[in-house]
Amino acid sequence: MTYSRTILHHDVRPRELWGWAMYDFANSGYTTVVITAVFNAYFVAVVARDALWATFAWTAALSFSYLLVVLSAPVVGAYADQHGAKKKLLAASTAGCVLFTALLYFAQPGTLWFAIGCLIVSNFFFGSGENLIAAFLPEISRVRAMGRVSGWGWSLGYLGGLVTLGLCLLYVAWAEAQGRAAAQFVPVTMLITAGIFALASLPMFLLLRERTVPVVGKKARLRAAWSEVWQTASRLGQFPDLRRFLLCSLFYQAGIMAVITLTAIYADQALQFNTRQILLLVLVVNITAAVGALLCGHLQDRIGHVPAIALTLGGWIVAIVLAWAAHTPGLFWLAANVAGLCLGASQSAGRALVGVLAPPSHLAEFFGFWGLAVKLASIAGPLTYGVTTWLTGGDHRLALLLVGSYFVVGLILLSGVRAVRGRRAALRSERFSFAQQVD
């Protein structure tokens, strides 16, 4: 038996794994360039003209887009499960994110509401696509290898972010050498990001099969999807470990999303980094994040899902304390790279654990609920930071400490999760559903 047969289901070809992982490569450029490294600082400093409410406006726009994902994720997942439509919905979300990212090219001083609108729509499509691509993981990977496979995807994803950011950095360096201002060169990076997303996503659509078999007809689709969502929500009590982990995810992902969303703003406002320094910082952090995802995937399959996630949450707490204490670039670089290792590890490990705890015939739906928890976190974390800086007149260090408390709460909640018990509950539910269908 080849190595690929020990990690993939019998009907999955290795090229499908590569195609699936390439989507992580494709969409990571959006997070890295638009949300983390370039457009966020540009939005605050240029589009919003460094207003006191600028950071709050950025976090509020993102929070609204995540709220849209929260409201739609479970029903989108249920619809995808019922109609075997993950790839179709993913194609629509990809096209939407690419289009509205490209439209950010026109974001300039005086176009605040246009920029906010494009940000909201592009991030909504990005978040929807994240849930859908994650739902393919249990279809291609065996349970015992899910940590490794998820880690490979996240690791390749960070390399994708590295490639996109690297190309943007080359262009920014050239543009600055030509004497161009941020309002001239940052919009071009939006076109670079959109183009790479579109091209790099093609292997997934060409190589990965849709394996979900439709279970309902074409009539009453939306009603059937909502009905399935409410049935699943009412059954969450049957999955206490999954339910507790979703609550745990809500807290620690709030911290993660605040860091992803506001790293460049913190570096700019608290440590006076310039655009090139921020790009270089995020470039290096993407490398450490890729290493973290790869190493944690293997570690997770060896020591268990819950201990691996606990280890990363402890690392996050250390990173936050270091960043809070940093008044020089050196210590902040150390904090950022510790966070990078934990970022890759915790994102990969969380996705894999949901795949273990979810019933096999309701993967997209339960990943929709995971997406709901993550997107609620994406509202709470950045908004906590944004409101704090607004109310305190720009105290970014206090805002960072408040965000760090989310990791502490997440670690406490994680202590009650048992992966083996949760997997038994998922399989028991699957057998019960099958018996009902037979009857």
Mind explaining what this structure looks like?
The longest helix has 32 residues, at 146-177. 57% of the residues are buried. The chain has a single domain (12-214, 226-438), classed as Up-down Bundle (Growth Hormone, Chain: A). It has 18 helices and no strands. The chain starts with a helix and ends with a helix. Mean pLDDT is 85; it is low at 434-439. It has 439 residues and is an all-alpha fold.
Question: What's the total number of strands?
Answer: 0
| Structure annotation, total helices | 18
- Report the major sheet: none
Class of secondary structure makeup: mainly alpha
Helix content: over 70%
Low confidence ranges = 434-439
Order of helices and strands: HHHHHHHHHHHHHHHHHH
Number of domains: 1
Straight-line distance between termini: 38 Å
Q: Give the percentage of residues in beta strands.
A: under 5%
CATH superfamily: MFS general substrate transporter like domains
Q: Average pLDDT value?
A: 85
Q: CATH architecture, please?
A: Up-down Bundle
CATH class group: Mainly Alpha
From the spread of the alpha carbons, the general shape counts as globular
Supply Rg.
21 Å
CATH topology: Growth Hormone, Chain: A
List its salient traits.
439 residues, mainly alpha, Growth Hormone, Chain: A, 18 helices, 0% strand, globular, disordered C terminus
